[in-house]
């Protein structure tokens, strides 16, 4: 059976390019694998679209239902972020850089998770360990994922390993100016004109289980918060709709990549709890958190502590 390599829902550049890269590595090692993603190609976020086009990579195949399939997971191990019926799939490998989630398996599997900034960084090591050369186009994709996940090395999730991986991958991919590549990606990813508010909320969005309460956290990385000044009401409305669908809280991180901070928009059954989590006060349902760049390393751990997870 062909192994479907798949990243998390609302796929980001790491989820997409890591699926491509790990499928290539598995194939090179004699395991038949194909890259998949939890999205149709036209539903990909604009940054990922740009990266695939720039490096001539084909979009992974869409996968919606995992039942009866053999899966390798990249960039996640939370059931809530997987395709439907993940518990009826045979998970054969996991490569990740997040906290370990709640996926369980019946058999021993390859499980490689490292506290680095990007799954692409872990995969770069795995190619080297296996003695498999990374194809030029795939190196470009992996490099883009590292720049994206680490916000061009500015995120607190960024490690020396990520920087070292970029230094290696840029040679393979033949890219001189990674800052210019990052700015192209940022421009694509932060484009909001004409995009429905709900699509913006879901552009980079994850649900978490916090002590039995469902909490959604979206993030928009922007060159400046002004980019969304005119559509804040629409974003709030979209958040209200998403919250009404069984969620305790919905948060939207409006992250200013240049100022290095986040305007955190909050809709919650318990706003005081969220204020406590970030030691700040909400004004008009939002609060500025200086230095907040990372959902994984800053937002989610603070929420988990406040919710008593
Ligand atoms: Mg990701
Ligand atoms: Mg990632
Ligand atoms: Mg991300």
Textual characterization of the structure:
- The protein folds into 2 domains: 3-187, inorganic pyrophosphatase (n-terminal core); 197-307, Roll (Diaminopimelate Epimerase, Chain A, domain 1).
- It is built from 10 helices and 11 strands.
- The chain has helices spanning 13-28, 46-55, 119-130, 136-149, 160-173, 178-189, 197-201, 232-244, 271-278, 295-307; strands spanning 3-6, 33-37, 61-62, 70-74, 90-96, 110-113, 205-210, 213-222, 249-256, 261-268, 286-290.
- The longest helix is centred in the N-terminal third of the chain and has 16 residues, at 13-28.
- The protein is globular and about 55 Å long.
- The chain starts with a strand and ends with a helix.
- Bound molecules: magnesium ion (3 copies).
- One magnesium ion binds next to loops.
Nutshell version of this structure?
The chain has 309 residues and is α/β, with parallel strands linked by helices. The chain folds into 2 domains: 3-187, Alpha-Beta Complex (inorganic pyrophosphatase (n-terminal core)), CATH 3.90.1640.10; 197-307, Roll (Diaminopimelate Epimerase, Chain A, domain 1), CATH 3.10.310. It has helices at 13-28, 46-55, 119-130, 136-149, 160-173, 178-189, 197-201, 232-244, 271-278, 295-307, and strands spanning 3-6, 33-37, 61-62, 70-74, 90-96, 110-113, 205-210, 213-222, 249-256, 261-268, 286-290.
